[in-house]
Recover the amino acids of this structure.
């Protein structure tokens, strides 16, 4: 089963990952990739470089970042291959533990729907 672990951060803290954190994270990602539990991962650029596209009442609007109404934003993600939600939680805990005491982040984990509609799988 695949799970999406979304890393929620407050991007206004000014915290920058240390060289040690980046090295530890690199080791963890390499280990999880070898295990087959890490499918993909990436950090995201700041919201100041992003856009939001909304669809409401038949109209589409675009808003440039940063998004001041957001206290927490998705700062990155990991696609995990896990046997269960408990296993995905265990993998995410390993990721969080690497950060040490100075970081205040959380992850939201949700199972991915891996199927696609028949019209996409079998075009006629």
């Amino acid at each position: 089963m695949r799970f999406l672990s979304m890393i929620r951060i407050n991007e206004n803290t000014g915290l920058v990952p240390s060289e040690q954190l980046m090295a530890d994270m690199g080791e963890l990602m390499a280990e999880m990739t070898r295990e087959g539990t890490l499918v993909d991962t990436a950090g995201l650029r700041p919201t100041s470089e992003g856009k939001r596209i909304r669809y409401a009442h038949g109209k589409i609007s675009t808003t440039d970042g940063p998004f001041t109404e957001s206290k927490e934003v998705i700062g990155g993600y990991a696609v995990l291959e896990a046997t269960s939600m408990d296993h995905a939680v265990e993998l995410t805990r390993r990721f969080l533990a690497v950060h040490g005491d100075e970081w205040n982040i959380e992850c939201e984990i949700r199972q991915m729907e891996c199927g696609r509609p028949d019209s996409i799988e079998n075009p006629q």
Notes: The chain has one domain: 2-111. The beta strands are 2-9, 38-43, 51-56, 59-64, 73-81, 106-111. The mean pLDDT is 88.
